[in-house]
Amino acid sequence: MGAAMPPFDSVNVGDMLPSLSLPPVTRSMLALYAEASGDPNPIHIDVAFARAAGMPDILAHGMLLMAWLGRLLTLWAPQRDLREFGVRFSAMTHVGERITCTGRVVDKKVHDGERLVKIEVKSTNDASELKVVGDAWIALP
To answer: pTM for this one?
Structure first.
């Protein structure tokens, strides 16, 4: 469960969520994720396959980056209060990259009796290259 959520009335458009900085992507991290997620695509775990496909090395799973953005959200609010969450993948993530996930409040509304905030999320590497961008609606007390 996430930290204590702020009440709806104290959240403002433009407010930032605490960022989430992750360790560098490693081969073992990707192998473990491939096993846990049931996604054994060799582009994520087999260096020779990735190089034959024209990549310098294996690539991180896009869904792993989405999961990290999900962690950013659920550190701020309990998962049960997440109403919608979607992303778009912008660039490949390579072994050795450090990813930082950020979120910003971009809208507030009351819908069907729920007090909702829209959070824009994104992940970038240390060179500020955008990897994944998306948004989520979260119900607040």
So the answer is: 0.93
Residue 110: in which H helix or E strand, if any?
strand 99-111
**pLDDT score recorded for residue 6:** 83
Compute the residue count for the chain. Answer: 141
The tokens describing 58, both together, are: 């294996």
Dist CA 83 CA 116 (whole Å)? 9
CA distance 21 to 99: 6
pLDDT digits (tens, 9 = 90+) for 42-52: 999 999 999 99
Distances (CA, A) of 45 to 5, 23, 52, 69, 126: 38, 18, 13, 22, 23
CB 134 within 8 A of CB 69: yes
Residues of the chain with pLDDT under 70: 1-3
Looking at 7-81, list the stretches that DSSP marks H as alpha helix, in order from N- to C-terminal side.
27-37, 47-52, 62-76
pLDDT tens by residue, 109-118: 999 999 999 9
